[in-house]
Amino acid sequence: MAHLASTLVGAKHAGYLPIAAYTPGSSEKHSFEPISGLPILGHDADINSILYAIDACRADAVAVSAGVQLHPQTLRHLGWELASRNVGLIMAPALTDIAGPRIHTQQVAGLPLIHVTTPSLEGGQRVAKRLFDVVVSGALILIAAPIMVLLTILIKIDSRGPVLFKQERVGIEGAPFNMLKFRSMVVDAEARLADLEHRNEGNGVLFKIRNDPRVTRVGGVLRKYSLDELPQLFNIFAGSMSLVGPRPPLPREVEAYEHDVRRRLLVKPGLTGLWQVSGRSNLSWQDSVRLDLYYVENWSLAGDVVIILRTVRAVFHSTGAY
């Protein structure tokens, strides 16, 4: 229930605003739900108490979360009573982060069962994604070539050192690869990392500093508009990365992964992804993982196109970039 409430509060555009909670059969008699802070209007499992609470708070709809301690007959009667009051009834299953196309409701022996198809990126889907990556990255390389030449000159003028920065990242199925970026920091940035660990403003696993002293003047501009990531187009064209996918992790980050988080490695890491268009460095580690796993579970070529279009907007707004 708390997860359902917090999700709806964070997605006000969905049109649902939680106003109260009811916990039938709960042994913990709280006045407020500990996580969401919603007032709890009752705990009794009888239909009259539930209806009294619904009338008292003047709810437009009632969401029944997974695991609610109500007898099926009570739930059926509740649906009838809500219909007579013109109050909506919403059933919220325990399935989270599953996209709509994978969910199908089917009547089996009079029961409305929810069927969830297994996600896969094999055969034709994998070929289509790879073809999309090659065509789009090749076109972008040609279009961005003059910009990359200009950035090369500016980086050389601004500070000594190589123009490109190569860093080992972990790709699909744990395979390591060298990710390319325009150098946005001083040459000895990696050596100075240990001295800055105590200033980490990231989300626990990821290291980020809002005003990192290692970033050069040109590097600050590159990072703000994600121009430092343009060389990754060559990673995509070569096949070690994809245009859209989970954020490419460092080996030390993968070592800290829990078992479930390793599902991020089932697809190629991406130049952009749901993490890029949803806040970037402002995201918590849990939210970053949730978004990446959602992508892995619900990939589609149409979804990739939407993420790319949203990335353009996110880059121009520079949200969460530092």
Main traits of this protein?
322 residues, two-stranded parallel ribbon, alpha/beta, 10 helices, single chain
- Considering DSSP H and I runs of 4 or more, what fraction of the residues is helical? 25-40%
Mean of residue pLDDT values: 82
Which structural class do you get from the secondary structure elements?
alpha/beta
Number of domains: 2
**Secondary-structure element order, N to C:** HHEHEEEHEEHHHEHEHH
Strand content: 5-15%
Question: How is this structure best described in words?
Answer:
- The chain is of the alpha/beta class.
- It has 2 domains: 2-94; 123-317, no CATH class.
- Helix content is 38%, strand content 13%.
- The protein is built from 10 helices and 8 strands.
- A two-stranded parallel ribbon has the order 1-2. The chain has a two-stranded antiparallel sheet with strand order 3-4. The protein has a two-stranded antiparallel ribbon with strand order 5-6.
- Helix 4 runs antiparallel to helix 7 (232-238).
- The longest helix is centred in the middle third of the chain and has 36 residues, at 123-158.
- The chain starts with a helix and ends in a 5-residue tail after the last helix.
- The model has no long low-confidence stretch (mean pLDDT 82).
What are the SSEs and their pairings?
Elements: H1 2-9, H2 47-57, E1 61-65, H3 72-84, E2 88-92, E3 103-108, E4 111-116, H4 123-158, E5 164-170, E6 176-182, H5 193-196, H6 217-224, H7 232-238, E7 242-244, H8 251-255, E8 270-272, H9 285-297, H10 301-317
Helix pairs in contact: 4-7
